[in-house]
Design brief:
The protein has 84 residues and is an alpha+beta fold. The protein is 44% helix and 21% strand. Helix 1 packs parallel to helix 3.
């Protein structure tokens, strides 16, 4: 069983991104998962796709949340993915 891939899409100077980092970090740590961050500032294709929704959480490549990350929903999604 492969662990779900969790990616947080952020941008520079974003207060919501700081909150999202903490939220994703807490949930991932609780479940023993790793996660990564990608910045739209460095990737024009991400900036074009997610410009108005930053921060964005992707789980296994699927957008699951944006702006204000709901920790309970993210934990529920990740637990479900881990059970599969």
């Amino acid at each position: 069983m492969a662990a779900p891939t969790v990616v947080l899409i952020t941008k520079a100077d974003c207060h919501l991104c700081e909150e999202a980092r903490r939220a994703v970090g807490r949930v991932a740590a609780e479940l023993g998962l790793e996660w990564s961050e990608e910045q739209v500032d460095q990737q024009p294709e991400l900036r074009e796709r997610y410009a108005e929704e930053i921060p964005v959480v992707l789980v296994d490549g699927v957008q699951r949340d944006f702006w204000k990350i709901d920790e309970n929903r993210l934990a529920r999604l990740l637990r479900r993915a881990l059970a599969e």
